[in-house]
Structure formats: structure tokens, C-alpha cells
Amino acid sequence: MCGITVALRLARHSSLIRANNVVPDTEDSKKRKLTNGFSAHGQLLDDLEDKLDRSLDAINHRGPDAHGTWTSPDGRVGLASCRLEINGLGPGGNQPFSNSDGTIHVVVNGEMYDHQSMREEMIELSGYKFQGGSDSEIVVALYEYYGVSFLSRLRGEFALCIYDSRKQLFLAARDRSGIKPLFWTIHDGTLLLASEAKALLPFGWKPHWDVRSIIDKGWLTEERTIFKGLRK
After folding, report:
1. In the chain, what is the straight-line distance between the N-terminal and C-terminal CA atoms, in Å?
2. What span, in angstroms and rounded, lies between the C-alpha atoms of 209 and 218?
3. Quick check: helix, strand or coil at residue 229?
4. Confidence label for 143 from pLDDT (cuts 50, 70 and 90)
5. In the chain, which residue ranges form alpha helices assigned H by DSSP?
6. Eight-class DSSP state of 132
7. d(Cα 164, Cα 156) in Å, to the nearest integer?
8. φ and ψ at 158, to 5 degrees?
């Protein structure tokens, strides 16, 4: 069992970020930037990293062996994982995983079946160099080679998120039976996803009972949950 959290600032809100955070340069502000390293992106990045860290703390029980985060330089995208070491023991299995040129970033909660044969196939087909022995790392190699169609090749129980900075593409997926949890919502212009709802609290999301979903048992049979606006 592991835990993941992802935050993705939606594109249509980028202008609002710039408007709210970027102040026209003056001589004094330029000096402050040089002396203090201040920038709007720097503020966003620090804020995102702090929220991701607190999010992982909230679900630390899912993966107490290692915490890891990746954030884009502009602070718009962040992926985080807390890991319970089972397969691929050691730092080579720590997440988020990235490809060799740092354009593809992945977090995975779950177990990939028959990953050893897929690993051998990817080494033969693409020469992919794996960081360690984790079954989850196969997701990076498969996506890099096959693109989004790689999902048809996966067998297992999993919830995963991929960010491809080269294509500006984000993908989230669960196994066909929905065994591994993945909750999502949009809050303050940011798409948030996590293994547990409480991992979203550091981002300012507040839970409110969805009485209709509770009465209809929508939380049991549909993508609705017991909280308004939170899907799974």
C-alpha cells in the first residue's frame, strides 16, 4: 500500500495566477529579486511543495518508508508519493519516477502483475534503463514507448498519474476493477487527486456532506462520494 497526491493548476487560471502574483518591476523590486531570490514562480513553487509535504504527512500510514515529491519549475504541477517498500527495496523504487530526460513523471499506488516480463520487453524494445526493481516503474517505460495506449497492456491493481511536460499532457487512471482508491476534485482552479480525501485538506479543500449521495448510495455504486464535489 502506498499513497499519492497530485496537484495540477488548470490552464484557464494561469492568467489569474500572473495577475495576482506578478508585480511590475521597479528598481527596488529588481534589487529584492536579486538579493532575496523572490519571484512569483518561486512563491508558487514553495507553496506547492509545502502543501504536498503536508498532504503526505496526512496519509503517512499508507507509506512510512519514503516520501518523495516532484514539482514543475513554474509551480503549476506537483506529484507526491509516500511509499511502503514491498517490491524493489531500496532508493531505486522511490517515487515519483521520471524518465531519463526528465520530461515524464509518474506516481503509482498499486501492484503490476507480470512486471518482470514487461521489464525485459522494454529493455529489448527501447533499451530503457530502470532505476531499480520496483514493479511500478514499468509504467514510465511503457508510457514512453507506447504513449497513452500503454494502459491496455497493464495488468494489476493500481491508481496512477502521469505528467508529460513535453506534450503538456496529464493522465490519471485506475485498474479496471477500481481496487485502488483515487479521489479527485477541482478546488480554487486546481485539479487535486489523492489516495485519501484527507490528503486534500492542506490545499484548502473543505469536506461537506453530500446527503443525496448518502441517501442514494451513490458513494457505493457510482463515482460520487459522501462529500460534495469529490469524485472517485
Report:
1. 18
2. 13
3. coil
4. very high
5. 14-21, 27-36, 40-58, 115-126, 138-146, 211-216, 218-221
6. S
7. 23
8. -160, 155
Please, which residues have CB within 8 angstroms of residue 104's CB and are 6 or more apart in sequence? 98, 140, 143, 144, 162, 163, 164, 165, 166
In whole angstroms, what is the distance from residue 65 CA to residue 54 CA? 16
C-alpha cell at 135: 514493479
CB 140 within 8 A of CB 88: no
Q: pTM of the predicted model, to two decimals? A: 0.86
pLDDT tens digits for 100-138? 999 999 999 999 999 999 999 999 999 999 999 999 999
Among residues 31, 25, 49, which one has the least CA distance to residue 203?
49
Distance CA 142, CA 99 (A): 11
Q: How many residues does the chain have?
A: 232
State the amino acid at position 84 in one-letter form: L
